[in-house]
Amino acid sequence: MSDTSTLRPVIENPQSDVVLVGTAPVGGRVQQDVAEAVIGHWQSVSWPAELLSLTVYVSSEGTSVLTYAQWSSQEALVRSLKETGGVSDTAVITGTESPAPVPYRLYRAVRGSAVGDPAPVAGSFPVAFFDAEDHQAARDFIDGLFAAEEAGEGDERAYPGGISANMHISLDGTSILSFSEWVTEAQAVAHIEAVWEPLLKELGGTGLLYRHYRSLFPAA
Prior knowledge:
Blueprint: E1 18-25, H1 31-44, E2 51-59, E3 64-71, H2 74-84, H3 90-94, E4 102-111, E5 125-131, H4 135-153, E6 162-170, E7 175-182, H5 185-202, E8 208-217
């Protein structure tokens, strides 16, 4: 395992070209057991040099495990998946019936101005997925969402506890991933209910709305 695995991912890491995001519903199993199966797998194998970080998150309601893996190149990720036969797929590792992991690229990231520098350690990671027709539609959706937010709230983003909002687009252009970092879940929930949910409804839909995660591994 790489030494960098002891750190949470720096979302805007310039060395990260693509991220592989997987989710696994725990079903009737204990969430901790599913998460530890993923952790145990990655502790037992040698990491490719191109795998920069992998973090496991558990949902606050106890129903889902999410993995966020940063890769230095799309080619390296594709090669690794072929060589391992999908062993990095969360469903294969845990034995759960899970969607195939999806590769994304970071499209836009914004930082909150109400937290200090350096930013505090995030304790809550709201995640949402939205469908898109193609890359242009995905970019238009994200740009329109941020523009509507700035029109109503201003561009300083001085939200209590808000560290960052990171919008990703899947490599095939059909999925948008919103991955945010907040100091506490209570602050994230308050902001989403007051700002994001009304904006999303005005734009024509709420997508698969936010599920709140906390980081389990690697630890900060």
